[in-house]
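In the previous lecture we treated proteins in isolation. Real proteins rarely work alone, and many bind small molecules. This record shows how such a complex is specified: first the sequence, then the SMILES for zinc ion.
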Amino acid sequence: MEQHDRYVARAVELALENVGAGGKPFGCVVVERGSGEVLVEAANQVAQTGDLTAHAEITAIRRLAERGRTGLEGCDVYVTAYPCPMCLGALYYAQPERVVYVATREQEDRHYEDGNRYTSLATFYDEYAKPASERNLPAEQGEHPDPEAPFRAWAAAHPEG
Ligand SMILES: [Zn+2]
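The predicted 3D structure, ligand included, written as tokens:
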């Protein structure tokens, strides 16, 4: 079996093990591209911890940060299913070389739904594509005399950008 296929298989194995442990069916393996070293493995921890952000990808990124590694440059990320919008956003911040997913959102959707009142697996990306005023999650701008003050302060403290 090619190394690549091993990481794919491992992502699924982590998800299956997690279901066996009472968790949700998602796993993530982060591999350093050059060495092929597995830097971290993680499974979704939402059911175990009650932390709604403890998806496998986020958990993997946090574990690496605890070890002093910020960002996933030079890494490939193997996941059980195409990332949800939260994890996709986190992966855009982390900037790996590539994401390899096993199941598509449609394949996942045939079996899994997490009961969110604002969105569903099938509509989550459409929701993000709407203008803010049309999204299901209510949001409005608060009144403040100087909304840009924190960002001006930041720019002043970091003149190099
Ligand atoms: Zn996620």
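Summary for your notes: The longest strand covers residues 75-81. The chain has a mean pLDDT of 95.
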